Amino acid sequence: MKALTLRQQTQISLILFLWVFINSCTYDKAEPSYEGLGYPQEIGKIIVNKCATSGCHNDKNKEAAGGLSLETWNKLFEGSRGGAVAIPYRPDFSTLIYYTNSYNEFGAIQLTPKMPVGGQPLSKEEMQLLYNWVLQGAPDADGHVKFSDNPNRKKFYAANQGCDVVTVFDAETKLVMRYASVGASPSTEAPHMIRVAPNNQFWCVSYLAGSYFQKFSAIDNSLIGQVNLGFGSWNTFAITKDSKTAYAIDWNSNGKVATIDLVNMTATIVGGFIFPHGSALNATDDTLYVTSQMSNYIFKIPVNDFGNMEQVSLNSFPPTNGSSLDPHEVAFSPDGSKYFVTCQKSHEVRVMKTANDSLLAIIPVGEYPQEMSVSSTMPYLFVSCMEDTTSNPLQRGSIAIINYQTHAFIKSVYAGYQSHGVAVDDVNKRVYITNRNINSNGPAPHHSSVCGGRNGYVTAIDMNTLQLIPGYKAEVSVDPYGLGITH
Fold this sequence. Notes:
The chain is mainly β. The protein is 11% helix and 38% strand. It has helices spanning 6-27, 41-50, 73-76, 95-100, 124-135, and strands at 155-160, 165-170, 175-181, 191-196, 202-207, 210-217, 223-232, 234-239, 245-250, 255-261, 266-273, 276-281, 287-292, 297-302, 310-313, 327-332, 338-343, 348-353, 358-364, 369-374, 380-389, 396-403, 408-413, 419-425, 430-435, 455-462, 467-468, 474-478, 480-485. The strands form 7 sheets. Strands 24, 25, 26, 27 and 28 form a 5-stranded antiparallel β-sheet that branches. It has a 4-stranded antiparallel β-sheet with strand order 3-2-1-29, with no helix packed on it. Strand 24 (419-425) and strand 25 form a beta hairpin. The radius of gyration is 28 Å and the shape is elongated. It starts with 5 loop residues before the first helix and ends with a strand.
């Protein structure tokens, strides 16, 4: 065989090198990295390739896809037009799971159109990865869980009476950031009122159909204390400014008031109150005011001497039991010089002078006034009128806005169907409203609830314009009732 020339040997070597190089690139081609988009690798592979695709949940097409972009982890947590879609640690409340799930083991709620639209549903293995990821907090590629960076962020809370859960919102973004399970028994106890302690270290819940009064950490929403008050309809409560004592009210014909030591979680209970309901403490925390809901009066109780309780008439008649004004809730002005009482039967707010309990003003509002919240930076009192009606049969309920300095009725705003809870956010100049939506004539919820029943929703009013914030409607669980907010 004729020997190859040096030039021929060089050419063959070059060809072999190129063949090896090309084939090694073909077989060792690296998988695209999704960590630069914020997603853990396996999660990014699913979401980016099957959800954030052309014509679907990417930046370019998100307006036609519910306002949701999934191009990056940060975009996921901007939510959609319906609010948050992934709730850390709660796949059972995450619509990201509802719309991708086709398997019963990952939840009974399986919404359509199934994602990815027009494509094959996620495999069981992919669904398991996605479900477990949300269950573990839906962390980014570095293990960071959304909203965990600042435990002292401003938050507001909605108690859902139909589901024994509390929805926790980030006040800056108005997005749902967590769901906290509450209650002490497997049956629904109906969390009615939620309030954040003045020290911002914990929040408390009372129950319509339960025995316990519970205390939860404002940092991680864990249960940190509870006290058994005996079965009752524990409607409202007030917390002292030092965050050491609460006064809880049992709404019954022979109702009770429980004085709760919030440090040691013990209670003493006094009975003999006729249908007590709303509660508030005066500026010095030495007197508790409690409405008698089937009457024309309120109870005025020295907290150190319940035996010297008085009945204060809200009109010119002596205190009388039996439905008349039917005072529901009581709240004080920021300086404590006057207090306001919603009278649900007479559809008005009565303004009383604290110094002598004299009547200062009667302010007509919408039908069935319930809860109140007062701004400390603007002269506004916001009142929910849950059954207020208009010419529009699809609207029921309103928020009455009152100038509490002049006692002038300013306007009424439709905030949602059967508005009930109301909380002023003076930092962000907003008012948050829970809309119960328990009447079947109300707007259809976006999706089913894991608890059965109809989901309600939260809206907000801009205090600078006194108009409803357009486009904000955060669906929550069943029958959102009470609202609490950090101080």
